[in-house]
Amino acid sequence: MVDEKGRIAVKVTPNAGENAILMPAEGPEAAVLQVRVTATPEDGKANGVVLKLLSKALGVPKTALTIVHGSKARVKTIEISR
Predict the structure, then answer these.
(1) C-alpha R_g of the chain
(2) Which H or E run contains 20?
C-alpha cells in the first residue's frame, strides 16, 4: 500500500455512518485504502478526520501526514514523513 516514496492512495467517503478504515478489496482497487468519515467535505473537515484516523492507525503524529494530491477530491495521495 505504501510506495517507495512513503505515499499511500486513499479513497474517502464523506458523510458516512461511522469513521472507519477498510481493508482494500482485491483487484485494481487493492492499492487504494478505503476510508469512511462522518465529517462533511466542506472546509477541509473530512480531510482533517482522514489524517487523524490514518495517524492513529499508522502510529505516527498527524503532522507526519500531508495530502500531496487530491485535497478536494475523493481519491487522495497522502505522504508519510518520518
Answers:
(1) 12
(2) strand 20-22
Banded model confidence at residue 49, pLDDT cuts 50, 70, 90: very high
Domain residue extents for the chain: 7-22+32-71
User: pTM, whole model, 2 decimals?
Assistant: 0.89
Assigned CATH for 7-22+32-71: 3.30.1200.10
Contact 40, 48 (CB under 8 A): no
Where do the H-state alpha helices sit in the chain?
Answer: 45-58
Q: Is the dihedral of CA 77, 57, 19, 25 positive or negative?
A: positive
